[in-house]
Amino acid sequence: MKFHHEDLEIWQLAMNLIPKAYKLFDRFPPEERFGLCSQGKRAVISVVLNIAEGSGRHSKKDFSNFINRSITSLHEVDTVLKVAVKLKYTTQEDYNFISPDIEKLYFKMIAFNKTLKSE
């Protein structure tokens, strides 16, 4: 079964971000497995789950609220990675590798949300 949200570019971009982010999170030290690593994984999954859940809502206002949640989760992913660079759990180069994907998804979600609000 294929759902409507699977056709959305923002959902596809979010799905593609997951393995890249997990690869970086899995490099964190073992003592962070239940801390920063876990938080980052939950946040990156939250992005795609909120897009999916929002698309199943019966109003554009509800969908917009879920897109806002996705956007805040994406902020969280970005911040976890920046903290990881600061703590030397990952490198600036690794962050620079994933950052364009985060930025592209962010701006696409902002634009998509504006469309929802204007209709």
Task: Give the helices and strands, then pairings.
Layout: H1 9-25, H2 36-55, H3 60-86, H4 92-118
Helix pairs in contact: 1-2, 1-4, 2-3, 3-4
> What is the mean predicted local confidence, pLDDT?
95
Distance between the ends: 28 Å
Give the name of the CATH architecture.
Up-down Bundle
Morphology call: elongated
Provide a count of the helices.
Answer: 4
Q: Helical amount among residues, as a percent range?
A: over 70%
Give the tally of β-strands: 0
Top-tier CATH class: Mainly Alpha
Which fold does the CATH topology refer to?
de novo design (two linked rop proteins)
Strand content: under 5%
Structural class: mainly alpha
Account of the protein in words:
This protein has four helices and no strands. It is mainly alpha-helical and 119 residues long. The protein is elongated, with a radius of gyration of 15 Å. The mean pLDDT is 95.
Offer a concise description of the structure.
With 119 residues, the chain is mainly alpha-helical. It has four helices and no strands.
